[in-house]
Amino acid sequence: MIESREDLDAIKQSCQSMVTRSSGLSAGAAIIPIPGVDLGSDVAILMRLIPQINEKFGLSPEQIESLDTESKLFVMTAISNTGSKLAGKYITKKLIVTVLNKMGIKVAAKGVTKFVPLIGSAVAGSISFTAM
């Protein structure tokens, strides 16, 4: 349970570390010159990462459901006001693919650069790291 600003900052730092590690994994998969490997790994990474982040902030569907009505209303209003499409939701492969499709330019650029020998793989890796 988040009880203070320090708790919130600690959770934020922990989540940023998880995202950085996941970005590194995504970049590593993007370097592999086999089409589709990077997209598949991005889906797998996000399917694991997003629920972990939601849970740390107390926003998993189960955690929200266990709140009293007033708290639940507050959390759902805050989520909708911030425009978050992934907070408090059950994360499905379809939802992740939809998010990746909205990032279409980065995903397409990453795919195209893989076909440029050597430098293309490095560029694809850096695009993947940044996009994640």
Summarize the structure.
The chain has helices spanning 5-31, 37-56, 61-65, 69-82, 93-102, 104-113, 119-131. The chain has 132 residues and is mostly helical. The mean pLDDT is 77.
Descriptive overview:
- The protein has 132 residues and is mainly alpha-helical.
- It has one domain.
- Helices cover 75% and strands 0% of the residues.
- α2 packs across α5 and α6 runs antiparallel to α7.
- The mean pLDDT is 77.
Secondary structure: elements and pairs:
Layout: H1 5-31, H2 37-56, H3 61-65, H4 69-82, H5 93-102, H6 104-113, H7 119-131
Largest sheet: none
Structural class category: mainly alpha
In the predicted model, the low-confidence regions spanning at least 5 consecutive residues are: none
In round numbers, the mean pLDDT is: 77
How large a portion of the residues is in β-strands, by DSSP E?
Answer: under 5%
Q: Helix proportion of residues, in percent? A: over 70%
What does the overall shape look like?
A: elongated
Radius of gyration: 17 Å
N-to-C terminal Cα separation, in Å? 27 Å
Note the run of SSEs as H and E: HHHHHHH
Please name the defining characteristics of this protein.
single chain; 132 residues; mainly alpha
